C-alpha cells in the first residue's frame, strides 16, 4: 500500500468531509481556495491550509495551484478520491447549500429517522457537462453548448448562452440563461445538454437584466370549487392558509413550475378533476401573462 493510499484510509471522518468539499468545489466550479474551505466549515485559514495540504499529499496529481486565482484548479489528470461526483449526488448538495454529503460514516441516519425518496427517472447531464455549466455560472462566462430542444431548431449546431442560475422544479433541473440566438432569457433543461464548454469571454447579461427572474409576484391559490367543505378545510390546513386563500411570493420565471408542481387546475371553467387538481388560481389575470404555457 502506497503512502498516499494509507493516508487516505487513515483520514478521520471530520477531515474527510472537508476533503470531499475540496474535491467537489474544484471539479464543479473549477477552483477551490483556502477561504472557500474556511468559510464553508467555519474554521480558521490555517486549518483550511492544512486540509488543502493534506489533500495534496493524498492526491498529488489532482490539483494545481494557480496564482491568478489564488487557489487550486483541477489538473488534466483529476480523479475523484473522496467525493461521489455524479450530478445526482452533487445537485441536491448545491440546492441544500450543504458543504458535504449528508449521512454518517456508518451509513446510519443522522437523526435516527428513516427517510425514503421517490425513485424518479434520472434526468441529468454528464458530470463533465454539468461542471462546465456551473463554472460558467460561477465565473460569469459565456457557455458554448449543444442543446437538444423540442422545437424544430437544428440541435446539432452549437449555441452561445449566458447562464446565471440553476433551477430545481422538483421534477427536473433547469439552467436559467440568456440566449444570444433569441435575444432573451429562458430555461434550458439540464438533461438536454449533450456538450458544453465554458468560454473565456465574460457574460454580458446576468440576473440583474432578467426581469422575470428579478421580479417577485404574488400567486394566490384557492381550493377547487367542486370540492366539498370538508375537503376544502383540510386543504387549507394542509397548506397552513387562512381566509380561503393560499398566498405565496415567487419569481415570475418560476410561476409555471409551481402551478404544475402543485397540480393546479388551470382551465378557465375549472373543469379538471378536483381530486387530481384540487387548487385553482385566484389572480389568474395577473399571473397568466408570465406562465401562459402552464394554463389551459
What would you note in describing this structure?
This protein is of the alpha+beta class and 296 residues long. The chain folds into three domains: 3-95, Arc Repressor Mutant, subunit A; 127-211, SH3 type barrels, CATH 2.30.30; 215-294, no CATH class. The chain contains ten helices and eleven strands. The protein has helices at residues 3-10, 13-29, 34-41, 45-58, 87-95, 127-139, 211-214, 229-238, 255-261, 284-287; strands at 63-66, 71-74, 141-147, 159-168, 173-179, 184-189, 193-202, 216-223, 246-251, 264-265, 279-281. A five-stranded antiparallel β-sheet has the order 6-5-4-3-7, covered by helices on one side. The chain has a four-stranded mixed β-sheet with strand order 9-8-11-10. Helix 2 packs across helix 4 and helix 3 (34-41) crosses helix 4 (45-58). It is globular, with a radius of gyration of 23 Å. The mean pLDDT is 91.
CATH topology of the largest domain: Arc Repressor Mutant, subunit A
Q: Rounded to an integer, what's the Rg over CA atoms?
A: 23 Å
Oligomer: single chain
Give the DSSP E fraction (strand runs of 2 or more residues).
15-25%
Corresponding CATH architecture of the largest domain = Orthogonal Bundle
Name the features:
296 residues, alpha+beta, Arc Repressor Mutant, subunit A, SH3 type barrels, 3 domains, 5-stranded antiparallel beta sheet, 4-stranded mixed beta sheet, 10 helices
Amino acid at each position: 500500500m502506497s503512502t498516499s493510499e494509507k493516508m487516505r484510509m487513515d483520514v478521520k471522518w471530520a477531515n474527510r468531509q472537508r476533503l470531499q468539499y475540496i474535491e467537489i468545489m474544484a471539479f464543479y466550479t473549477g477552483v477551490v481556495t483556502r477561504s472557500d474551505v474556511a468559510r464553508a466549515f467555519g474554521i480558521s485559514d490555517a486549518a483550511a491550509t492544512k486540509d488543502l495540504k493534506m489533500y495534496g499529499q493524498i492526491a498529488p496529481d489532482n490539483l494545481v495551484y494557480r496564482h491568478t486565482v489564488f487557489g487550486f484548479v483541477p489538473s488534466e489528470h483529476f480523479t475523484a478520491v473522496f467525493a461521489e461526483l455524479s450530478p445526482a449526488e452533487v445537485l441536491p448538495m448545491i440546492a441544500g447549500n450543504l458543504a458535504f454529503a449528508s449521512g454518517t460514516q456508518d451509513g446510519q441516519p443522522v437523526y435516527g429517522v428513516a427517510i425514503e425518496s421517490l425513485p424518479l427517472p434520472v434526468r441529468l447531464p454528464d458530470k463533465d457537462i454539468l461542471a462546465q455549466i456551473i463554472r460558467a455560472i460561477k465565473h460569469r462566462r459565456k457557455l458554448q453548448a449543444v442543446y437538444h430542444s423540442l422545437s424544430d431548431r437544428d440541435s446539432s449546431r452549437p449555441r452561445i448562452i449566458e447562464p446565471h442560475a440553476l433551477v430545481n422544479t422538483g421534477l427536473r433541473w433547469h439552467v436559467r440563461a440568456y440566449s444570444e440566438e433569441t435575444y432573451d432569457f429562458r430555461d434550458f433543461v439540464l438533461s438536454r445538454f449533450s456538450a458544453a464548454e465554458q468560454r473565456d469571454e465574460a457574460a454580458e447579461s446576468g440576473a440583474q437584466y432578467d426581469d422575470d427572474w428579478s421580479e417577485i409576484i404574488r400567486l394566490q391559490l384557492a381550493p377547487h370549487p367542486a370540492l366539498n367543505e370538508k375537503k376544502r378545510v383540510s386543504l387549507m390546513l394542509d397548506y397552513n392558509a387562512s381566509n380561503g386563500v393560499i398566498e405565496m411570493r415567487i419569481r415570475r420565471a418560476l410561476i409555471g413550475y409551481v402551478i404544475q408542481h402543485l397540480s393546479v387546475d388551470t382551465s378557465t371553467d375549472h373543469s379538471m378533476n378536483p381530486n387530481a387538481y384540487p387548487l385553482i388560481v385566484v389572480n389568474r389575470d395577473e399571473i397568466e401573462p408570465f406562465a401562459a404555457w402552464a394554463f389551459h
